[in-house]
């Protein structure tokens, strides 16, 4: 029985797909770029596909792995690029892309020596990341011991 291609796995699966697409396309076309270039182009493609500018963290994790991350500030330039892509205005594309790439200013600190292996599988039912996060927060709130701290339960203390 074929798996439904519209199902989502959640938690960054679309980001991993976009980064894989950008990196493999660059490689196939002989435009092999470093991680920084792949990251910037993936952020632009993700904003276009999602039709919004998110935090960028999922794309950054897909490129660089475990990290602390500060979002880029050039949202205006990214939105201008997305609008050019949506309008298919090829005359303005290069200028909008260069403006975005030249102002891209994210910050990250990689965790050297930290290794994490991920396995992407089809869960045959999909998921919704926002719903899963809400469920975790509801679970934490229901088990909190300090009303001012959602994560004041015994399990969270042991994880810390």
Describe the protein:
With 160 residues, the chain is mostly helical. The protein folds into 2 domains: 13-109; 128-160. It contains 7 helices and 2 strands, in the order αααβααβαα. The chain has helices at residues 13-28, 35-50, 57-64, 75-87, 90-103, 129-142, 154-159, and strands at 67-70, 107-110. A two-stranded antiparallel ribbon has the order 1-2. Helix 1 crosses helix 2 and helix 2 crosses helix 4 (75-87). The longest helix has 16 residues, at 13-28. The model has no long low-confidence stretch (mean pLDDT 77).
Strand line-up of the largest beta sheet: 1-2
* Number of DSSP-assigned strands: 2
Oligomeric state = single chain
Please tell me the overall pLDDT. 77
Summing up helix and strand content along with how strands pair, one would put the structural category as: mainly alpha
Q: Percent helix among the residues?
A: 40-55%
Assign an overall shape.
Answer: elongated
N/C terminus separation: 43 Å
**Main sheet record:** 2 strands, antiparallel
Which percent band covers the strand fraction? 5-15%
Q: In sequence order, what are the helices and strands, one letter per element?
A: HHHEHHEHH
List the domain count as a whole number: 2
